[in-house]
Design goal:
This protein has about 400 residues and is of the alpha/beta class. The protein is built from 13 helices and 16 strands. Helix 3 runs parallel beside helix 4.
């Protein structure tokens, strides 16, 4: 490999690192990194701003100023070629006088899809495509999934005890993984557009599902709960924070049939009834009485959740749910809670990545079985990476196709 190629890879690697910085923050737009290099010196650098604008290229060019003339622009994703709320980035690069553009990944968005490259070449700018293409594909895997398959990229995260359990019945949250693993999950949340749990996990654990790592609190993802019967307590942390961090409550069949429809004793591991304490210190049963959807109590419950700031979304299947999320600009989804939620996505064949954290301790009697563990990972996934996080074993599996 010659020196120019190595230099291209070095600067593109830096552009891809920039792109990762704002993953989960750029709304419907991809998080793109751009670096302007003139005679081996970086004269401008930027990443797509939170909210999706301004784009990386225009910011980097503004920083470079006149030094952009004759320079090389390293852009992690093909510059846009269409007029949206801002002019095309390809036009900005042409106007700046850059002499060369290096691109890692072409943008599959039908409004771009190679047109940005055509515009640049038509203006006499040299364009090289495919530098660190594989690495770029990993950075943009969620955006590429939404563009190509019209659904988010789905990551399933499970923390499993040494004896294959994800919790203990009736005890709410049970700590399985250690501090290092929990910190890794916080970073993962910060890079993800949305996080999903089943109603049982929401009721039993009363999670907030936000990013709690210092300095990253503002990067909390959209929270989603599968809750066909609207059992989510109004006093839950999720509802009480719905105006601060978006909350989507999924009704319809994708939100599970209730235990009343399944028959007595059929409640699964991540279904539950509310036992959250009231301000008086007492507890109560389900907020919603066991009536069919559409009844008076159900309508009142909908109104109360919406008044608290939650969005109610009806979806009859997991594919329907993912399509609805993609239409909202959600490119990445982290499925984080509940054996049944995990199984629903696996059964629908809509999991792209599995992150498995195996703790050293056993839970024993009363444990809630994981849908799988290290020795029984579903077929169709390949182990890509393993690590030790303290006493925990971490394994990263990717879908084969």
């Amino acid at each position: 490999m010659g020196e120019p190629a190595r230099e291209d890879e070095r600067f593109m690697a830096a552009a891809l690192r920039l792109a990762r910085r704002n993953l989960g923050l750029t709304s419907t737009n991809p998080s793109v990194g751009c670096i302007i290099v003139n005679k081996g010196t970086i004269v401008g650098r930027a990443v797509t701003a939170p909210g999706g604008r301004p784009h990386a290229e225009t910011q980097a060019l503004a920083e470079a100023g006149e030094k952009a003339r004759g320079a090389t622009a390293y852009v992690a994703l093909e510059p846009c070629s269409h007029h949206g709320k801002t002019p095309p980035c390809a036009d900005a690069l042409i106007a700046s006088g850059v002499g060369r553009v290096v691109v890692s990944i072409l943008d599959p968005d039908e409004r771009v899809a190679g047109r940005g490259v055509v515009m640049l070449r038509g203006a006499g700018i040299d364009v090289d495509i495919g530098t660190l293409h594989e690495e770029g594909g990993r950075v943009f895997e969620a955006y590429l999934m939404r563009q190509r398959k019209k659904r988010p990229h789905v990551t399933l995260k499970l923390a499993v005890s040494a004896d294959g359990m994800i919790g203990r019945r009736g005890e709410g949250q049970v700590r399985i993984s250690g501090a290092v693993s929990r910190a890794q999950v916080q970073v993962l949340r910060a890079e993800t557009d949305a996080i999903l749990v089943g109603i049982g996990t929401a009721v039993a654990d009363d999670p907030e599902l936000t990013v709690r790592m210092p300095g990253l609190e503002e990067r909390s993802p959209v929270r989603i709960v599968l809750d066909r019967r609207l059992d989510l307590p109004l006093e839950s942390k999720l509802v009480r924070t719905a105006r601060d961090v978006p909350l989507i409550v999924v009704t319809g069949d994708a939100g599970y049939p209730s235990s009343h429809e399944q028959g007595a004793g059929a409640r699964r591991a991540d279904e539950g009834q509310s036992s959250l304490p009231l301000s008086s210190g007492s507890t109560r049963g389900p907020v919603l009485s066991p009536l069919a959807e559409g009844g008076t109590d159900y309508d009142a419950r909908r109104g109360a959740l919406e008044a608290a700031g939650a969005e109610l979304l009806s979806a009859d299947t997991i594919p329907d749910l993912l399509a609805a999320l993609a239409s909202r600009g959600i490119s990445s989804l982290l499925v984080e809670g509940g054996a049944r939620a995990a199984r629903s996505f696996l059964d629908a064949d809509l999991v792209d990545r599995i992150l498995l954290f195996t703790g050293p301790a056993a839970i024993g009697e009363g444990g809630i079985s994981s849908p799988f563990q290290r020795t029984s990972v579903p077929e169709g996934f390949t182990l890509r990476r393993t690590a030790r996080y303290g006493d925990d074993i971490f394994e990263d599996y990717e879908r084969d196709s």
